[in-house]
């Protein structure tokens, strides 16, 4: 007869703390999303008060409780995120027209966001084909709408090859995309957060997902789980995202508010984090004093409530401060690297990777990815997505690095100056790039860039 007994066992796990979750949430929000989030927090937390910058009358600063935000988060602990490595380059297709006329017109779709991340990964042509096929068959929730076997049959590959690419997509942002169902989506997110298969949240999702709505008492009585551990596990599960594609809405209704500003003042380029339209959030002096007054806190539940809300309020203010400093650091590196682009034009856009910025700022690459995602910068040349400045690169014969965007500009210039009766073939363009600019790229790369510029082939251009 098998004996059933409780046993304590120590297992090392990487757990996201509430403070870290809050920091990451605030960091990846753009200005419009952050504005809405702050207003919601102010309504639910008595310790937070708000002051709108466009109001004439302001609360005297002497009446506000000052908070010293010295305990900034140590980003070096971001080994938690090494499950989703983003140490690669970015390349975004360019539309026809001058690069200097490029302004932000729409929010990226889920497929575009995934393609941007895949552009950093070394995939074979077959794997890229599989990834594109999978992305083309995601439903509005972000789930894979057809079976792996169907994809394998349509593409003439093995199911294991499809599964390999699908598992890669699942670990990209948003985590859980390309899952087949809700259970797989939630389990993927738990694995990404560091929860092992032996952890209670993982077990609940894997074995009792349909019974979770029954509640703590039901699960405790039926399976013998500790009620306190169940409460913690269910809290973690409720904070997972069941629909990874939720935040990729209709781009037609998008209104863009830049998060950064690059400008030149007295021959010096400067970075500014735009926050003048934010409501100013600070600690309520009244509730802060109440929380410190033992006479007014006879009720233990009220005391715990205020204690928890004060902790959340202070964490939010520190998260806002960290967001500001992180945005500034990343913006400063981008500006210093791409200064020639703003002064001389598209041909001077330099290659830039997440790893380059991570090394210069001391931040983790996954943090850089969150900072630049869905954020924009206002420049003298127009409004650009921060992702625009992250591009692949090549080395010229002189040893100088040149970006893919600059090469596209050269290709466009060569074609514009060609004889319409004798247009250049892609091989000839590659030869001109080599001889005139010292840029050595393959003919198929020229073809790829020409098609991304929406420039017809030699046969269609010939007049």
Which whole number gives the mean pLDDT?
79
**Overall spatial form:** flat
Gyration radius, to the nearest Å?
Answer: 26 Å
Distance between the termini: 89 Å
The main β sheet shows up as:
4 strands, mixed
What would you say this structure looks like, in words?
With 463 residues, the protein is of the alpha+beta class. It folds into three domains: 17-53 and 74-102 and 254-391, no CATH class; 108-248, RNA polymerase sigma-54 factor, core-binding domain (Arc Repressor Mutant, subunit A); 393-461, Homeodomain-like (Arc Repressor Mutant, subunit A), CATH 1.10.10.60. The protein is 46% helix and 8% strand. The protein contains 19 helices and eight strands. The strands form three sheets. A four-stranded mixed β-sheet has the order 3-2-5-6. Helix 1 packs across helix 12, helix 5 crosses helix 6 and helix 17 (426-437) packs across helix 18 (443-452). The N and C termini lie far apart (89 Å).
